[in-house]
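FW: tagging you since you asked about this chain on Friday. Here's the raw sequence from the shared folder, copied in full. Didn't touch anything.
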Amino acid sequence: MVAPSVKTVELPLVEDTEEFGRKLGELVRAGDLLLLAGPLGAGKTAFVRGLARGMGVQGRVSSPTFVVARVHEPAEGRSVRLVHVDAYRLGGHLDELDDLDLDTDLVDAVVAVEWGEGVAERLNEDHLLIRLERGIDDVRTAQLVPQGEWTSRPLPV
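HL: got it, structure written out here
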């Protein structure tokens, strides 16, 4: 097995994080799984806001912490939904993740899972792990770890 090619991008402002998400949103397609990792305040939800804009989905994007998952329908002329999941409250309980039926959503939607590393990889071996970090200078970095077919797909870096 070949080790994935890790790419890193610097994101000095929150707007840069959103713009990075928007660029990736223009590249994703139904069936894609994005796993977002990083501490509180690292920019996971900001990234998903940009992702949603790039995908052209409807609705305000905010952290789905208390509802666990939000579905954003495509705008007119678009066909792919965004399912935005916050796995933080699941506490690593795989049964609860199964109850969300995300493998069904992966047929016709892009699924972005905040706090997904170590929890949601089993949904699809083809996924993109995005590790977000926030430095002491507030500059964020995104480390992209493509798995499976993502190793041969274009990334916005």
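FW: The first helix runs from residue 14 to 25.
HL: agreed, and The CA atoms of residues 18 and 50 lie 4 Å apart.
FW: great, closing this out.
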